[in-house]
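Extended Data, panel c. Modelled sequence:
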Amino acid sequence: MKVAALLLLMSTVLCVQLESGVPILLKEIRALKSDNSDFKNLLDLELSQGAKLDEVVLLIGDLLTQQKQDQLQDDLDYAHRITTINLDIEYLQIILGSLQREKVAKNQQWEEVTQLIAQLNGVLDNLRTQLEILNGKEEEVRNIRAQEAASYQHRTENNNKVLEALNNILPKLSSAVFNAQGALIEIDRDQMVESIRKELGYNNPIAVLIAMTAKFDVPTVKRIIEKLEYIRQSVIEGQQVEDEREVAAIQAFQTTIQQLAELREKFQKDFQVVSTQLQKANNTRILLEKRLAVLAKDLTNTNLILEQTKEYRDQYEASYQQRKGKRINEIKTVQAAYDLVDKYAKKK
């Protein structure tokens, strides 16, 4: 401000006689309405002490020009600064909107991947159950096969014992009862029965059958031999059936085991695939949760910076308007003083 310069210049003209019209000018200056009492008092003092009106006009004019230039520069600075601040606010609002949209999208993705994880866990639980059932079924099949094999082995051993006994007793029975001409040999019945029972065992059904025979004539012995031959053939045929059934059972068992193995391999592959998918989904959810945490911080910080920037803009706007209002009042006062002094300077 040029007030200090004005004061310096006017202070050099002390104790000078007042020019014509100055007293009236002083009254008008003192009557000016202004909050800038320092300027009025200074102007009053200098005029009262005899400062030249032409010089005062020049000084007031310089002061007026400077104030207008200061206001213009302040307006330009304000326009530039407020534009920059508003651009910062717009940019922050764009960033905030982008963060909010990303947060909504990430939350949606988190919900979807969480549902997927629940579904995959359900699939894994089902596969575990299927594998347990499969393992139980295989154990059951193997146990049944073992029981069937043991039963077959037991029946085969019994049949072999019967066949061995029959193969042993039939030739002996024929040679012991008939001679070369086919005639019945007179032998002691009890002796023969005892011999047979020793050979076959006392509880052997064949020995019991022979022991229950009342007489040993040719027809009776023939019937016994025929029955024994029939029994032997039945055992042979029965064993053949047993063998065929055992082969079929083994084949069915092997087919079943193969099918179970294929199912197990499929379930295990499915389990591995689903486990990999579950691990991937869990990793995705972890990354989403980390990103959501970062977004929450970014949103908080961005909101804070935005509010601070708006507050700064409001404060800057208020400060500018306060300066502008004060300077405009000063310019009005200086302009009014300039007009008065210039008017009286032109009258002298």
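Confidence is low (pLDDT under 50) at residues 1-22. This feature is highlighted in the accompanying rendering.
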